[in-house]
Specification:
Keywords: Coiled coil. With 439 residues, this protein is mainly alpha-helical. It has 2 domains: 190 residues, no CATH class; 193 residues, no CATH class. Helices cover 55% and strands 4% of the residues. The chain has 17 helices and 7 strands. A 3-stranded antiparallel sheet has the order 4-3-7. Helix 11 crosses helix 17. The longest helix is centred in the middle third of the chain and has 55 residues. The radius of gyration is 46 Å and the shape is elongated. The two termini are 82 Å apart.
């Protein structure tokens, strides 16, 4: 690699001076057009020759400043120290007649670079300060190449390192300028940085996968421990001390019986004293339909199955009767039947709806007639206002005449528990599968 930015900068200036001494203006078409106009004006004695000379010097200063600025921006990548000071000088270089001496400004910037860590290390290594002069006095290309090789590419032992050789070959055999060599070095550095970034991203991804795998294994371990813990739990006494058969009155075998799923959930939650069981499939078929008909929808006369045959969009409802089931042609599924979660777990009341749509339509009435009085009676402070969605007032702003504004639950599913969910949780806790022919 090149040893420091300041030396590259000096060599770049020297090569620019040698290469563009006569043809610096060839690419500046606007200036050439203006120059022709100035010549024509001078021929007509409209301007003195000094005006042309001043304009040429001004344009040459601009060109030189642009060349210095472009080279410096590339070389600064190698030595970012003192960057703020260099930027200030770059601003000066952008002004055509700044200080009247753009070359002086360029040399001042080179001094800033030489004070940085690269420049300091170069000074410690004994870098020759007369490099530009040596290049200028070299009469042959071989002499110039030797000067560049000695200053930029040789190691302390006098040999050229393998990773430096290709850059030296660019100067010696490919006709490349010092600027082009610096550009190639910077491009390769950026490519190497990109490869390192890609490697870092891949390593981060591998770390994420390892953490995900560890989390998955930990989750599997927790599930296994939970299953083992459930297996060691004692079966509840109520599964052994069953009530008599609801049909024949005989003693029920704890190992083989049928039950009302709704009663089982209510009993396990402490809402009612005991569950309803049947000793055989025959008794279940005989007594279950009449028993299940006692579990009516909590909405009563306002059940949506009576008021609105079609459920409101956005809810799910089964086309069942106003009862939870009455043994008719189509009983609702376990996911249609809904318990009020607060009543089941906290208020200990048997609140059941035939469907989610029915619970949604009658939520306000249930909350105001059941929840609020029970909370007050039990001294419970519950704030569920954030879970309510108030409906717009009618155009006449009279409401329903009761003085109560209409509202509904934002997510009625969050206030309810399906029978299927309750049964699944009960079976997991007790390691017993409920048998029921009716639900």
């Amino acid at each position: 690699m090149l040893r420091n930015s300041s030396r590259s900068f000096q060599v770049s200036l020297h090569q620019q001076q040698q290469r563009h001494q006569q043809e610096w203006f060839t690419s500046r078409r606007a200036f050439l057009s203006e120059f022709d106009s100035l010549i024509d004006s001078a021929k007509e004695y409209q301007i003195p020759p000094q005006t042309i000379d001043d304009r040429v010097r001004e344009e040459r200063s601009r060109w030189y400043a642009e060349r210095v600025r472009g080279s410096l921006l590339r070389l600064m990548v190698e030595d970012p120290s003192g960057r703020e000071e260099v930027f200030e000088k770059l601003e000066d270089l952008s002004i055509p007649n700044a200080g009247g001496d753009p070359i002086g400004l360029a040399m001042e910037i080179a001094q800033f670079l030489s004070k940085g860590p690269l420049g300091s290390s170069a000074a410690e290594q004994g870098v020759a300060k007369d490099l530009p002069e040596r290049l200028a006095t070299a009469n042959t290309d071989a002499g110039k190449a030797e000067a560049l090789k000695e200053e930029f590419f040789k190691a302390d032992d006098g040999t050229v390192p393998e990773d430096h050789q290709k850059y030296l070959d660019m100067l010696l055999y490919q006709g490349s300028s010092m600027e082009q060599v610096v550009d190639r070095i910077l491009e390769e550095r950026q490519a190497a940085t990109g490869a390192r970034d890609q490697t870092n991203k891949l390593n981060q991804r591998l770390d994420e996968l390892r953490r995900a795998r560890a989390a998955h294994e930990a989750q599997k371990t927790r599930k296994a421990q939970r299953r083992e813990s459930l297996a060691q739990q004692k079966v509840p006494d109520e599964l052994y001390e069953l009530p008599a058969c609801a049909v024949c009155g005989n003693t029920t075998n704890p190992g083989d019986f049928f039950c009302c799923s709704i009663c089982t959930i209510l009993a396990s939650s402490g809402v009612q004293e005991k569950q309803t069981v049947f000793c055989s499939e025959t008794c279940d078929k005989e007594g279950h339909p009449a028993h299940i008909a006692t579990h009516t929808c909590s909405s009563g006369l306002f059940c949506t199955q009576q008021q609105h045959p079609q459920p409101r969009p956005g809810t799910t409802a089964h086309g069942s009767d106003k009862y939870i089931t009455d043994g008719g042609t189509s009983a609702p599924s376990q996911n249609d039947i809904r318990f009020c979660t607060e009543c089941l777990t906290t208020l200990k009341q048997a609140s059941i709806w035939c469907s989610l749509a029915c619970a949604d339509a009658n939520f306000q009435t249930h909350r105001e007639q059941v929840h609020i009085p029970a909370r007050n009676r039990l001294g419970l402070a519950v704030n569920d206002e954030q879970q309510l969605e108030y409906l717009p007032l009618p155009d006449n702003n009279t409401g329903d005449g009761s003085g109560s504004r209409k509202y509904r639950a934002k997510d009625v599913g969050g206030f309810t528990t399906s029978l299927g969910e309750a049964v699944q949780e009960w079976e997991e806790q007790n390691r017993v599968r409920l048998q029921s022919a009716a639900v």
